[in-house]
Amino acid sequence: MRYENIVKGKFIFRENRFIAQVEIDGKTEICHVRNTGRCKELLVKGAEVYLEPSSDKKRKTKYSLVAVNKKGRLINMDSQAPNKAAEEAIDKGIIFKNATFVKREFKYKNSRFDFYVEQGDVKTFVEVKGVTLENNNVVSFPDAPSERAVKHVNELMNALEHGYNACILFVVQMKDVDHFTPNSENHREFALALKKAYEQGVRIMAYDCFVTENEMTLRDSVRVVV
Q: How far is CA 163 from the centre of its chain?
């Protein structure tokens, strides 16, 4: 996936989950943050950030913050990017070989999964999670407690019980990492749910991404330590 007309800025301050102040060409601008997670290790004062101008001239925020340079590592932090990158990879057969049918936002009973994929008679529900938290080349999820993420894992286990295949795909929004592991320190409940899902047969996958200022593309499989 690609962005248009990316500009470089300097992070100043995050007012709330959605809004931040950045400096662009010496001028303070109010921008939209496309990630509602904490991202405290990314959005530090003075960090080099990359922003996409809004095409809506009536919007109060002229820019959307999509990436940040963390000590020389470029990290995409757009929460919409993982699903788009996953969709491109599925369409190209990188994740699921010989898919005969793919549908986004598939509703099943009381659940809504990011993707539904058919490979002949094999039917798989896929839930996608973006990963931006990195420490010493180890990446983890979530960066803050997420009951919604636990709910999604439980829903995948339920689908498994009804004869479907189930998969959770962690899209690591950076490259060159060692492995992925659930963030048991921040949210032990999620880590335990993921371990249980793995033991029951839910497929756990992680892929890193090729990231530039204006692009993010799914790249290589990353080792998962549950």
A: 27
The reply to whether 95 and 150 lie within a common domain is yes
How far apart CA 63 and CA 28 sit, in angstroms, is 12
- pLDDT tens for the chain, 226 residues: list them: 999 999 999 999 999 999 999 999 999 999 999 998 889 999 999 999 999 999 887 888 999 999 999 999 999 999 999 999 999 999 999 999 889 999 999 999 889 999 999 999 999 999 999 999 999 999 999 998 899 999 999 999 999 999 999 999 999 999 999 999 999 998 999 999 999 999 999 999 999 999 999 999 999 999 999 9
pTM of structure: 0.95
Q: Domain residues for 166? A: 81-224
Tokens of 111: 């659940």
